[in-house]
User: What shape does this take?
Amino acid sequence: MNADERVPRWLDDLGTTLETAAELVARGRDVFDADPAVPLALEALSNRAGNLAKRLLAADAERFGDPIWRQAARQRDFVVHHYARVDADLLWRTVSGSFPSLADAVRAERERPSCDVQAGC
Assistant: This one.
C-alpha cells in the first residue's frame, strides 16, 4: 500500500480519534477534573492524533503544510516524552480548543477531490 492509499485511511483514523476526544470533552470540565481516567484517555488520544499527523506530514508535507498538522505532532511529542509535566489546563485547552480546529482540517482534507495522476492533476 502506497502513501496515496494510506492517506485516506489515516485521515479516517484521525477523524475517529478526534470524534472520540470530542465525546470526552462533551462530558465537561468537571468530569475531566473529577475522573482521572478522562485526562489519561485524552493524553492517549493526543498521542494517537499526533502520530497520525506525523504520518500525514511524512506522506505529503506540501498538502499537510498548514501549521495545525505540525502542532498536533509537537503536542504528541510533548505528551509522550514529558508526560509527568503535562498540565491539565493546557491539555484541556488543547482537546477542547485545538482539536476541533484539527477536526475541521481533517474534514476539509476528506472532502478534497482526489487527484488522478493520469489525468494530469
Observations:
- The chain has a mean pLDDT of 89.
